[in-house]
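#structure-requests
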Amino acid sequence: MIDFLGLPWVQRLVYGLGGFIVGVLVEKVVVTRVQMLALRTRFKWDDLLLKSIRGLPTVWIGATGLYFALGVGEIDPQILATGYSALTVITMGAAILVVMRLAGGAVEVFSTQAGGPTHSPTLVVNLAKLVVGVMGAVLILQNLGVQITPLITALGIGGLAVALALQDTLGNLFAGVQIILTRMVRNKDYVRLSSGEEGWVSDVRARHTTIETFPDGNLVTVPNAVLASAIVKNYTYPHHALWVSVDVGVSYASDLEHVERVTLEVAREAMREVDGGIKDQEPVVVYKAFSDFSIDFEVRLQVRDFRSQGPVRHEFIKRLHRRFGVEGIEIPFPIRTVIMKGAPPA
């Protein structure tokens, strides 16, 4: 009777398949349960670590099974050396992938802790991963016995040619780095460009910055080089709160003291009752001009953020119009009086 377990190719098959099967079980059972426990804690780093190794225990344990499989029986030395080198690249590559994920996740965690609930721009996360990836590639090449110095020289010469061919791309890349380092705009900032585009900054990428327009929610893509050289008004930085102005005109026959008192009462009521108004901030009424048919003044209300100005302005105008009607304060129509001198012709 043939002893199949004693055959080298059967033992190699058992080691190889067994390694991957054990890896899948560890991934599905052990790692998943530990991840569920980690999600119940407030500590973020354990979640990041478990997220970074997702899918890789199968690779490591499977590679270990293949390593033992290569040690069974007699194999051609050339094939054996190639197999061990391939397993080394796979194992080290998986470890480098974990470090890349950790680097990107660490940037996200630190940016969240430093700047509130916003995420770090994609460009910063990708640059952190790129640095780790390049260092890991150098380690793998050194481990394989590849000389790095000639490779770096060749890459330097080739890099010069690539830089000349990709001037616009590299210009946008460095402009994106400048935007992030100078904190010119940040994620979730509401900005208005000198070219007229405005909205919430959603991300800064290698080539462009995406802006989500308000209120339609469409995405506007602005090249980083254009954004870096544009005149930008940031409605969020350094303060989220902003003043909203409403222009009003009343009849020349109005008692201006009465008008001011009524307007302030309505403004305080709107800021107190409408979501988005700052209750503790006193509204301001400033008379501005004698126009052709009315005395014009400006009402200034402070709101929580840019998104809040619409609802507060809307409700204030409605309430002011209703209150002026109750108080008998006239908001005149545009009128023009024409005086003709001399008698009309017969």
